[in-house]
Amino acid sequence: MTPRFCRRHVIAPGVALLIFSTVSGHAASAIANAPTVAPAPMVDAPLAPAVGDSPGESPSPQHQWVPGHWRWSEGAYVWETGRWEIPPTAGVVWQAPQWRREANGFVLLEGRWAEAPPPVGASPASPSTVVRPTPAPPVVVTAPPAVPSAQIIVVEAPPRPRVEVVYARPSPRHIWVPGYWAWHGRRHVWIAGHYEIPPRGHHGWIEPRWERRGGTHIFIEGRWRL
To answer: What pLDDT does 2 receive?
Structure first.
């Protein structure tokens, strides 16, 4: 595979985005026919938070607050808003992502769940001692936690909208949802137009769009209008 390198795009002082289209031939040839994932690229300075987070009230004593943070996904830096989560196992805490300084810039170290540090003043366990966390009591959640929203920010502009044929609607209740360009798998993907029945109490569709801000393009989700 011929190596292809990413391009660095500076949005503003201290803010940069990069887009990878492929991984290097050296990385792909390390293990024959093995799937590879491009690492988060180096930036000139740490990306500033996209929005502020307000934790609000915890759904239960077992929930932990995961602040909003940047992550590298499908060839773009994506902002994930803060949310309450139940840890995957007892005795772990959320370690927020960090920007590590390198010789030529900053590299994003992804956030993760890690073992909680011992309390201050606790005596270290002897080599023969095995410390196991106390299992958490069962949790009853009356409502599912909110799905975290992710903001898509890319450098590559979407292509021109395709010309579509609007066919006859199946019933008077159906509303035409025009096609649009979305971002998936490190590239723009066309979502074909189709008919849908709006949710109860909604009467119109607000189309998704791409907004140009500085040297980037931000995807704004479509939604049903009351």
So the answer is: 40
Specify the 3-state DSSP secondary structure of 184: strand
Using DSSP bridges, classify how beta strands 209-213 and 204-206 pair: parallel, antiparallel or unpaired: unpaired
pTM: 0.41
CA distances to 80, 89, 95, 131, 178 from 134, rounded to whole Å, are 31, 10, 20, 10, 53
Contact status, residue 46 vs residue 12, Cβ threshold 8 Å: no
Rounded CA-CA distance 108/102 in Å is 10
CA distances from 9 to 6, 19, 47, 155, 216 (A): 10, 9, 12, 8, 8
Q: How far apart are CA 161 and CA 158, in angstroms?
A: 8
Closest CA to 152 of 80, 222, 44: 80
Per-domain residue ranges of the chain: 156-225
Which tens digits make up the pLDDT trace of 173-197? 999 999 999 988 788 999 999 999 9
Are 11 and 17 contacting, i.e. CB atoms less than 8 angstroms apart? yes
Say if residues 122 and 129 touch (Cβ distance below 8 Å): no
Which one-letter amino acid corresponds to residue 208? P
What is the dihedral sign for C-alpha 185, 187, 188, 189?
A: negative
What DSSP designation does 25 have? H
pLDDT tens sequence across 138-162:
433 333 334 445 688 888 899 999 9
